[in-house]
Amino acid sequence: MLNSLRSSIHPWAIQKLGRDWLEYLASNTMNVVTEKLDPFIWSYDCKAKILAVRQETADTKTFVLLPNQHFKQPLPGQHIELTIDPENSGKTESRCYSLSEIDGDTVSITVKHNREGKVSSWLHDRAKPGMVLNISSPRGRFVYRDQKKLLFICAGAGITPCFSILKALDNRPNRPDIAFYYRSRTPDDTIFKKQLDQTLSGSGVDISYSRYTDAGSSYLPSQLLEAYPDLKERDIYLCGPEPFKHDVLAYLESIEYNMNKLEIEHFVRTNSGIEQSRQLNEDVTVFLKSRNISFVIAAKDCDKTLLEAAEKNGIQLEHGCRSGMCGTCRTILISGQVSGNQLGKSIYPCTAYPASTQVVLE
Ligand code: FES
Questions:
Q1: In ligand 1, which atom is closest to the CA atom of 351?
Q2: What is the pLDDT of residues 271-320, one digit of tens each?
Q3: Sign of the C-alpha dihedral, residues 10, 13, 16, 20?
Q4: Rounded to whole angstroms, how far apart are CA atoms 113 and 125?
Q5: What residues are in contact with ligand 1 under a 6 Å CB criterion?
Q6: How many domains does the chain have?
């Protein structure tokens, strides 16, 4: 009874009062009684209630979430970090998921079931409408920046942030020139196929099937310049499984695409660069080309990330999560070598380490 009352009150309260007012009211009435009465509203944490679960394909579901008052307004293409305690053991697991849709006060995440993945398995097997999840506020720089010509290149569940930007732009009167390339296994595995075919205008959307050749675009990721002759004029948004991103990046490098026009969605936690960096017994000089400044990392500090080493030298680099998850610190490696969090020429200084004595970054 209390739960169903809350279920109808929460959307109403967020819609009528707005998140800012609700935050003001909740923080001024927070006490042991209100916290127990309704821990979704009377909470210091950012939380979201599952409003609906929708099957998209055989192994992919969309979860429609109503975040509480601590959630900041998201931008299409951003992601949230979701934290659960899958075994109720006190040991939490966190994963980042792109927002596939932003609709008024609700947001959606669309999650492919990875059988070995604790969080996606929990979401697919146990998450139900009415449950409350711990989430972060929206993050990330994989967002539209008023460019005139775009090309989205995505595969599998990597369609989610691209779809959310596409959907937002599709409603605009001054819609930019959009091309959309999506690689999926088969028509049945194609997430948002109906919306791509019907809801959106459809123009400029090419779906390429890796295991089904009778329909869709016949272009492979290695033929993108043939598919989009003006590709080099377009700003590219790339998202998909790691091997797909590596292939596309190698291809873009081979055609000398300007990597400064590329945005990549990349959620990887890694410490794998530390061992390699410790083998360096010399000082490292790092040159930041766009700022025309350089700094030296002493040999004893080569186990520090590039971000930490820059800060130690009094140089501030743009960053967010400091753990390789948000993409905010991404920059281009122009020459030299780094280890750790690297995707083609894109590197993430918060989780990348020097691996040669000269490193030049954009
Ligand atoms: S990826 Fe978040 S700060 Fe580097």
A1: 4
A2: 444 555 556 788 999 999 999 999 999 988 888 999 999 999 999 998 87
A3: negative
A4: 9
A5: 319-322, 324-329, 348, 350
A6: 3
